[in-house]
Amino acid sequence: MSDTAKPIKSAKPRSRSSIGAVRSPQSTEAILDAATAILSEKGYKAFTMDALVERAGSSKPTIYRWWRSKGALLRDVYERAAVTFVTSPDTGDLEQDLIDHLRSLWVWWRSSSAGETLRSVFIEIQLDIEAIEEFRTAFLPRRERTLRKIFARAVSRGEIIDGPAIDAAVTMLTGTSWLHLVTANLDNLEDIDRSVALVVRGLRVG
Amino acid sequence: MSDTAKPIKSAKPRSRSSIGAVRSPQSTEAILDAATAILSEKGYKAFTMDALVERAGSSKPTIYRWWRSKGALLRDVYERAAVTFVTSPDTGDLEQDLIDHLRSLWVWWRSSSAGETLRSVFIEIQLDIEAIEEFRTAFLPRRERTLRKIFARAVSRGEIIDGPAIDAAVTMLTGTSWLHLVTANLDNLEDIDRSVALVVRGLRVG
């Protein structure tokens, strides 16, 4: 939650030069920085367009030209942050790799503004059916990429057999993680171990 | 969010007879009926307190005296509807029972206003940490009761062994179902079969 995030010094208002039809990288970064700072310091409730405009020294027309909705902007905030979150556990054991990755993910969510940002994405996309489609068909697969890599390595080692059960495993581990996120239950890291153990047992037999 | 909701004509002030500290069952039902109708006809975006007051012929003070938030009210709307949704599959086979129950649940969500209502509960509780706590510690266990009964019967038949893996199974099937709900993906009923098959295989080995 936001109240556990470290405060970040408020950005000074910036003057902006006029922009063309193409996104200015500087302005884009300034807007994403401002959004991150608001989510980090005050959480989703304080994340209004007015607050964002003020913090970023931007304007609503500019923001809405670059992002079709608050949800789209928040998604970019999350994905920019996710670039800094890289785990590639490769212990040679599927169960241990999954546990390592998911524990790191949960800790990252709750120790940075990333968890609050992803929660905010969930809320915002619920208001826009197009955003839900985009979320399911593009954002979700990108978010599941590390899990899929871990399973693929287990397949190539001969630890498990490839097949649709792996899709089910990815969806269940993702669904469980997100359920813990939206119910403010990320402290129960041992839930990861139990879920992973069950899934891996099922895959080894299957 | 509310600022994207369609404008709704302001409610005419109505005179109300004085009420006591105890909820009037008639008024409670009228408010829940009105909430159900709004969600069913127009969805969460149109579900504003003004719309509810007008539809129910009630007042904001009354509503807020009985429910501490929109989230709490929506939770009651969902749970009242859930009384009419009862499945008790008992085929003698854990996998089939789980599939039957979850398929019925998904179909109920998408064919009634129940899915929209639960989606709305998710959104609203995210704005209120107390509501999240209540959701996790009370609402969620109530929602998982049917799944737990199905697993308990399998334990008593000797099909699986009791233990913490069952908790993991319940959480994963719930998390997966809710992920499908919030990503508008309830048509893919075969995802249920794959998830259930994997979980049951894991439990039978464990």
Question: How does the SSE layout of this entry go?
Answer:
Two copies of one chain form a homodimer.
Chain A: H1 25-42, H2 49-56, H3 60-66, H4 70-82, H5 94-111, H6 114-125, H7 129-143, H8 145-156, H9 164-182, H10 190-205
Q: Number of domains in the coordinates of chain A?
A: 2
Oligomer designation:
homodimer
Overall radius of gyration of chain A: 19 Å
Sheet with the most strands, sense and barrel status of chain A: none
Please count the beta strands of chain A (DSSP E, at least 2 residues each): 0
Biggest interface, CB < 8 A: A-B, 48 and 48 residues
From the spread of the alpha carbons, the general shape of chain A counts as elongated
CATH superfamily of the largest domain in chain A: Tetracycline Repressor, domain 2
One letter per element, helices H and strands E, the order of chain A comes to HHHHHHHHHH
CATH T-level topology of the largest domain in chain A: Tetracycline Repressor, domain 2
Instruction: Label the CATH architecture of the largest domain in chain A.
Output: Orthogonal Bundle
- Which stretches of chain A are low in confidence, meaning pLDDT under 50 for 5 or more residues running? 1-20
Task: Give the helix level of chain A as a range of percent.
Answer: 55-70%
- The helix tally of chain A amounts to 10
| Gap from first CA to last CA of chain A | 39 Å
- As a percent range, the share of strand residues of chain A is under 5%
Rounded average pLDDT of chain A? 88
- The CATH class of the largest domain in chain A is Mainly Alpha
Structural class of chain A: mainly alpha
